[in-house]
Amino acid sequence: MGEETGMTLQGAQWVDLTVIGLVILSGVLALMRGFTREMLSIGVWIAAGAVTALLFPGVSGLLRGQISSPIVADGVSLAILVAISLVIFIPLTNMWASKITGRTMTAIDSSLGFVFGLLRGVVILGMMYLVVLMIWPDEEKMPDALKNAHSRPVLEAIALQVQEMIPDSMKGENIEKLAKQRNIEEAVKEIEESEDMLNDLSVPKPAMPETP
Hints:
mainly alpha
């Protein structure tokens, strides 16, 4: 038991370190590229996302007829649509970025790029956790390292924010289940806070001693 617990803790720590490392790596890459290029890159991903959302129902329906597992079919559909979109949009964006930024990059552009990169890393982690929910809909079947990671509640919160931007046709039942669970937890917390406030108001305050 002791050895298994130790291995689980080490695995959970590995997950936490990976989460931190991915955010820092995203920030450093954006620092090197600059804010302008990163914003243009976001435009690429937005365009790819729009194309994917538009074509996903048709492509997914086609592949579900060829692949027995709906999850695998949806995953392959997403991968194909995103890959094709990026292959088309990235070269065009690179040409445009070279004309806008030229060969020099200011310190402000680099600093803003670093901040942007950190935020981008957080969003990417949220998207990755949504994929995790698609692979392991049942929490009990998740790997112990992920289930016991300290960063998991943060990943869940980020994933819930990211899923608000996903079209309903691309949401899985497990994602909606997580959102409903979080809404229930927030509602229970608000009720408990309201009860505490009512209790404080109902308790009579001690009378102040009269001054002679």
